[in-house]
Amino acid sequence: MSKGASRIPVALLLPALLGLLFLVLPLAGLLIRAPWRSLPEQLTSAEVWEALRLSLVCATSATGVSLVLGVPLAWLLARTEFPGRRLIRALVTLPLVLPPVVGGVALLLVLGRNGIVGRWLDSAFGITLPFTTTGVVVAEAFVAMPFLVISVEGALRAADPRYEEAAATLGASRLTAFLRVTLPLIAPGVGAGAVLAWARALGEFGATITFAGNFPGKTQTMPLAVYLAMETDPEAAIALSLVLLAVSIAVLAGLRGKWMSTA
What we know:
Layout: H1 3-6, H2 10-32, H3 39-43, H4 46-79, H5 85-97, H6 100-111, H7 118-125, H8 133-158, H9 162-169, H10 174-185, H11 187-202, H12 206-211, H13 222-232, H14 234-254, H15 256-259
């Protein structure tokens, strides 16, 4: 045992090991109980590929929406002073702690056919969001955008504002300074936030099933397919879970330099 390890109090080591086992054993059980022999057949079925395609398309679209709306919002929170900024920041981060099902209900009340905004969208433009593929994107963006906003806001606060001030003295507008100076500086933070938002959107379940339903080929994403398969074909559910596990590991590997550094 190393010198550092010999100093670890037993009262801390035992709970730490129990916590590690608590987190690792379920994942190990997933690998142990995986139907490895039938896995290729499970993963090549039309239902799995349709759910995977829909998940990738919707998660990527939700990430795009989060980038278009979230980056300016993060800039507003990080670079400007206005009354109620703390309240706005709290509201922006609320979906992080809000139960996803509650988020789905809230979306229905606002964007549903009889909702506050949804009624107007339906009557004026014939647009109906609930129980559609677009509804999946909306639900995923709702729960994923806060991850991007927090990451980008942190990157903006860490970036030196003097570069923007120097650009302004050279005649650049605030928008030009943001696009040509600030955005390249915070690109790693934007990338990390986009990956986190994409991963959160890919794994979204509660808000999606509440707001968009569970219709194969239309709104049934991978998490919903896992839920349905658990009732009829547990081996298929395990196979689908392995795909999502592999994606999660890939996300962690891609972010290891930002989130897993020990320096």
